[in-house]
UniProtKB/TrEMBL annotation:
Keyword Transferase: yes
Organism in which the protein naturally occurs: Acetilactobacillus jinshanensis
Transmembrane segments: none
List of catalytic residues: 240 (proton acceptor)
Catalytic activity, reaction form: D-xylulose + ATP = D-xylulose 5-phosphate + ADP + H(+)
PROSITE patterns named in the record: FGGY_KINASES_1 (PS00933), FGGY_KINASES_2 (PS00445)
Function statement: Catalyzes the phosphorylation of D-xylulose to D-xylulose 5-phosphate.
Protein name per Swiss-Prot or TrEMBL: Xylulose kinase
Amino acid sequence: MQKYVLGIDLGTSAVKVSAVDHVGRLAAQAIRHYPLIQPKPGYNEQNPDDWVKGTEAAIHYLMKNSQLQPESIQGLSYSGQMHGLVLLDRNYQPLRSAILWNDTRTTQQCHEIMDKMGQSFIKITHNQPLAGFTLPKIMWVQENQPKLWQRVAYICQPKDYVRLKMTDQLNVDYSDATGTIMLNMRTQQWDPKILKTFHISRSMCPPLVDSTSYVGNVSEACAKLTGLSTKAKVFAGAADNAAGAVGSGIIKPGMMSTSLGTSGVVLKYEPDKNVNYQGQLQCEDGAIPKTYYSMGVTLSAGESLRWFRNTFLKHEPMKDLDKLAMKAPVGSNRLLFTPYLVGERAPYADTRIRGSFIGVDATDNVGDFVRAVMEGVGFSFRDLANIYRKRGTHVKSVVAIGGGSRSPLWPQIEADMLNTNVYKLINEQGPGIGAAMIAAVGLGWFPDFQKCAKKFVHFGEVYRPRYNNVKIYNHLYPVYHQIYKQTALLNHQLF
Ligand SMILES: Nc1ncnc2c1ncn2[C@@H]1O[C@H](COP(=O)(O)OP(=O)(O)O)[C@@H](O)[C@H]1O
Ligand SMILES: O=C(CO)[C@@H](O)[C@H](O)COP(=O)(O)O
């Protein structure tokens, strides 16, 4: 019997389940979307049970509509949207909707962290407290929902909640634990000083495990709902950017990727966990034990395009937006867009900045606007790549992952903006393959990720920078770069 693993990618827009065979061939895929709850500007939440139902429904569909036998799925693992706060009572039931990575309500709590712990906080976590991380969200709940906080028994990350409901076991892997900013990077333990300072009991924090750790089997209840076998082994999994990195072969020093998911990410494998970007970039544990990566995050990348479509072109499929944008000239007729729809994380940690269209002209058409949105994200990636370049990194090439890399246009915009080669993956958008690789290594199919990557990671098209486009973007970038400074005060006055 052929054998398979499942990679479950719990994204922000949807959960994507990929069945992959022992030589890395994608055998089947299923996707289920779930809503984002935005009750107020800057607030971004999701219902944890929507993730669970979506995952179970996607697996059920995949099992029903493919030829895969339940026993052939030997293992599964996860890639999860990072930093989300899931609060559980003592019966492991969610106490409120999850507060997500792109929720920007916690400016004040970030200041409180620095007031209480100062530079020692950065020394412990290797990160500046930023609004998207988990700790400030915990403090927001303590301050704003004290009665609910009294009932909290466990704190976990999004994919850990889904895994809990599939196995009855609660754990967190190191790559997601770093994203909480409660992990001590040196000891790789929950930091006692941080927990004490912010009144978090150690018992609330799940046990720490490696991404490849075997944490249990699919439970009987989950097997009934999904069509999986209870013999399927479950491995902890990783933060989506950590899983995306292994899924795109970013497993050696100097290698870089970009992700166009709901968020946008420029990511670099780091050989040294003590690398210091003065808080402008994040530093995290990787999916491979004792490996590290840094990244800069654009809060609304794919989300900017999704927002534009939902607001102005409701019934157009994404691929038709690509066609519209491809008809517009490079530089979108000098129409510029900044993607700060919910605030920004990098290079500006600013929860009160908002997006702009600059240079709107009476001759602009809808294609110019769509292209301007895609280019605005590209300019933001250039801002992030420049942080690396200023520190001497030669951005030789990047691997483009995430849903936006499916576009025939966006990777070319990236290549022209960054003036570097952009490689696409052949069969999946990155994090799902990374999750499948974690299961494959966990099962012992491969002795290490390097050997697994040789079979599982396949590069497809390469987009090379086009001289004339690069020239146009070189001309427009300094203008784009000024928009933040020129609009920050105006936006801050709106709050
Ligand atoms: N054909 C396409 N052209 C451009 N963007 C696309 C296309 N298909 C999907 N996307 C973008 O991909 C994003 C979703 O990517 P995905 O990696 O699935 O996100 P997440 O992991 O956050 O759920 C959407 O927000 C959308 O903007
Ligand atoms: O906050 C971060 C990384 O720090 C985001 O990258 C999230 O991890 C969400 O990822 P996507 O849903 O956009 O893939």
